[in-house]
Amino acid sequence: MKLSKQFPLNALRVFEAAARLGSFTKAGDELAMTQTAVSYQIKLLEENVGEPLFLRRPRQIALTETGERLAPKVTEAFAMLHDAMATARDSVDGTLAISSTHTFASKWLAPRLGSFHLKHPAIAVRFQASSDIIDFAREQIDVGIRWGDGNWPGLALHRLMGLEFTPMLSPKLAESAGGIKEPRDLLKFDLFDAGDVWWKQWFEAAGVTETDLDRRPRNQLGSQAVEADAAIAGHGVAILHPAFYAAEIALGRLYQPFELTRSDGKAYWLVYPENRRNVPKIKAFRNWILEEMQAAGH
Question: Which pTM value belongs to this model?
């Protein structure tokens, strides 16, 4: 018997999407198929199995008991196929696609990539700078550098570094107001971004409980790196990670008026799909960045 007769792969692919999304319509949108085509593929699979896989209700579907048993096994099978194909591509495609926040990419990763290339000259690197959560099932990304609490089910997680924050501004801006003598003096200037919870946490730790943060305009510049550039240009005060801006402080481009720093408990994490753990280029990058973090004391 032909493999296609034993294993209706197209129908199984449609079933996996419908079971995961809980909707024939959403499955069709994901797979670029009409709802009629989705229903037809599900019907073919049900005939092949000999049991209904979904309960059809008005504007709603639900897995039958048979469907509940089948769905996780089909999902696992497609994950294994995806992993096998990705591993096969690695022999001809040595490009590692990394999604990272703009700040981490520019202030930590890019300056150190030379050592990665020395260890792995056959692996090219492609960056995608974004603060959005990457959907590995939809985007051609191998690994991500995410900022958060590490609560991302289904992904392999490696904590890289925590982050402390404190206000910084240009020395000239500080001098324009006669210097910064106490934390409240920072309220004389524009703050990037005044609505950021970091500001509230820092001012509370500094003993400043009455602020006008809620009434200030929210100047949202998109990333800590851009906020730092605006602060260097003298346009206001940014709340930044001191370790990222040690060079700017040493050169007198940024001024940290107070030693007080705070942390919200979040961190940078290396993430990737669990089923791609053993892909060679991912293993190489994982081992390298964890060694770099350990050497830096994180």
Answer: 0.63
